[in-house]
């Protein structure tokens, strides 16, 4: 090839490169301009980054510090030092020593009920050993995992669930597995010693997950976090999870039919239940869900009632990661809503979840249960009765 032809070829290549660069630049410019701005760059008229404003309530203040740890930009804007953050490393987030600063940082700490004192002192503790595990529970990929919150003394509830809606299933590619989630019930809470009985129960049924923490109402959130970590390590292949209380009736067949009908897109972010919106903490001390103003301020994100909800295994793994960025909160279903919010998601209300029961006039009509997924609450004998009637092949509704 002559020198002239090589120069001409090189010139052509350079021209093509210049044209390509020009196109890329123009596309980038047009992408950064508003369609209605007639080619002009859109400049914000005010600050678009929310200014850091310290909270007064203890939980909000500690959560804010945790968010600074995970967001270095916010940390710079806040002008807070690492020492002021008190959560300068990951180990501080899981400390199981009582926090001595709580006494001075919670204005009315001395006057709080004991359950709040215990919760706040050990707010960051999440390191609890698993005393009874079921490492092979998800050896075959479960289509649905039934995870039921229970207390050690509730033998009758667990057995009723095993004999009714909580039966394990292997039918084709549909595998249903069951675990009960338990903590310790120590003598100081006036529980009898049932350790030998729960060990015997676990050996027989192989469905008990027991952690070494004190099983209280406020520690239901801890139960949620520990379960999510167990799923991530021992059941990451599960497709869907139902998580609920041991006093609910669940129409498992209805749940399975619903899950089989889902598209892949819908299934990925699935989280359905009886959703509560525009709620906030109760300030009346006599109420079960009472939260002092010194502990939490503001409203709650949308959340599904803790009686039971249904979500995807994929989402469970993401919730586990999100839980590291959300401080434990005394109400477990609200906490789950907070973790969903951290992921940019919200629970979806489904009319099949009746966490506040159905009208009394329909409760003895078995046909009232055929299209429902969950009803709260039901006694062990009622669970078995409803389940038996629903399985009748001659049932005509």
Automatic annotation (TrEMBL):
One of its GO terms (molecular function) is N-acetyllactosaminide beta-1,3-N-acetylglucosaminyltransferase activity. Pathway: Protein modification; protein glycosylation. Gene3D superfamilies: 3.90.550.50. Its main location: Golgi. It is a single-pass type II membrane protein. It is an enzyme of class 2 (transferase). GO terms for biological process: poly-N-acetyllactosamine biosynthetic process; protein O-linked glycosylation. It catalyses: a beta-D-galactosyl-(1->4)-N-acetyl-beta-D-glucosaminyl derivative + UDP-N-acetyl-alpha-D-glucosamine = an N-acetyl-beta-D-glucosaminyl-(1->3)-beta-D-galactosyl-(1->4)-N-acetyl-beta-D-glucosaminyl derivative + UDP + H(+). GO terms for cellular component: Golgi membrane. Keywords: Glycoprotein, Glycosyltransferase, Golgi apparatus, Manganese, Membrane, Signal-anchor, Transferase, Transmembrane, Transmembrane helix. The keyword Transferase applies. Interacts with B3GNT8; this interaction greatly increases B3GNT2 catalytic activity, independently of B3GNT8 enzymatic activity. Belongs to the glycosyltransferase 31 family. This is Hexosyltransferase. The gene is B3gnt2.
